[in-house]
């Protein structure tokens, strides 16, 4: 068992991509019920960190979720353990409408139809702007609307941990405020949920995160209390 109160515990995480060591010995925790930030400049390794946590790139080192090792598992198994991932580039299926995109990971997890509907309604209540876009093909959404849809999709399966990669990047100010407000509401609705958010601009994380780690050239600096 790793640190009992950490939903996510990462120790000595290394990633090598095309011969280059992109992440070096990353060690950090995301406690249950906390929002933790990961700030860093372009190319620092934020996306690679989340991809390694989700299992879509190969990594070395230990990753524990609620005390159980997940580092040997593939992405689908990690999703089944309750990790929801909103990638930086959204990765929505453009030909499917918003609701179909939201339902997809829950269908892959083989939840019952009633459970999928319950989750969908909870997400649409938290993110009412998606309700107005329900039947619109994802390919016709603006970049900011796609970020919202990617958050909603992550929430459909992310019962334990949400990984949000630069959610505020490219969002118009009004939509960024709404996104932050939704995260605050979520914090109240789901007090046990652990959230890891990356950002290149750490000031955007300050109002949301209990702690912000800084990543530089693939290495983590000491966390700052905010
Ligand atoms: N598939 C890949 N092959 C080789 N190198 C890669 C690959 N993907 C990323 N890198 C390199 O890894 C480093 C970290 O990239 P990463 O995308 O994780 O950074 P980031 O912090 O998310 O940057 P950004 O703020 O631009 O999104 C960069 O030097 C990048 O060039
Ligand atoms: Mg990135």
CATH first level: Alpha Beta
Query: What is the architecture at the second tier of CATH?
Result: 3-Layer(aba) Sandwich
Order of helices and strands: EEEHEEHEHHHHEHEEE
User: Ions, cofactors, ligands: which are bound?
Assistant: adenosine-5'-triphosphate, magnesium ion
Could you please say which CATH topology applies here? Rossmann fold
The amount of helix comes to 25-40%
Tell me the fraction of residues in β-strands, as a range. Answer: 25-35%
Largest sheet: 6 strands, mixed
Write up this protein.
- This protein has about 230 residues and is of the alpha/beta class.
- It has one domain (about 5-225): Rossmann fold.
- It has 7 helices and 10 strands.
- It has helices spanning about 45-55, 75-80, 100-110, 115-125, 130, 145-155, 175-190; strands at about 5-15, 20-30, 35-40, 60-65, 70, 85, 160-165, 195-200, 210-215, 220-225.
- The strands form 2 sheets. A 6-stranded mixed sheet has the order 6-7-8-3-9-10, with helices on both faces.
- Helix 3 packs parallel to helix 6 and helix 4 crosses helix 6 (about 145-155).
- The longest helix has 17 residues, at about 175-190.
- The radius of gyration is 17 Å and the shape is globular.
- The model has no long low-confidence stretch (mean pLDDT about 95).
- Magnesium ion binds near residues 46, 88 and 166.
């Amino acid at each position: 068992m790793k640190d009992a109160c950490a939903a996510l515990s990462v120790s000595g995480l290394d990633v090598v991509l095309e011969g280059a060591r992109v992440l070096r010995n990353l060690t950090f925790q995301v406690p249950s019920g906390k929002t933790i930030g990961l700030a860093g400049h372009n190319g620092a390794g934020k996306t690679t960190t989340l991809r390694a946590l989700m299992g879509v790139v190969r990594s070395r080192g230990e990753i524990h979720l609620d005390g159980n090792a997940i580092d040997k598992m593939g992405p689908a198994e990690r999703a089944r353990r309750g990790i929801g991932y909103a990638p930086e580039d959204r990765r929505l299926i453009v030909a499917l409408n918003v609701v179909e995109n939201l339902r997809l990971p829950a269908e892959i997890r083989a939840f019952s139809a009633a459970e999928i509907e319950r989750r969908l309604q909870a997400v649409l209540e938290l993110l009412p702007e998606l309700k107005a876009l329900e039947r619109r093909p994802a390919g016709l959404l603006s970049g900011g609307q796609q970020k919202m849809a990617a958050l909603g999709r992550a929430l459909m399966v992310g019962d334990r941990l949400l990984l949000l990669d630069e959610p505020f990047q490219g969002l118009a100010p009004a939509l960024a405020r709404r996104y932050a407000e939704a995260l605050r509401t979520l914090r109240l609705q789901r007090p046990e949920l652990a959230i890891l958010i990356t950002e290149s601009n750490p000031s955007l994380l300050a109002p949301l995160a209990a702690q912000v780690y800084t990543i530089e050239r693939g290495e983590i600096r000491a966390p700052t209390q905010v």
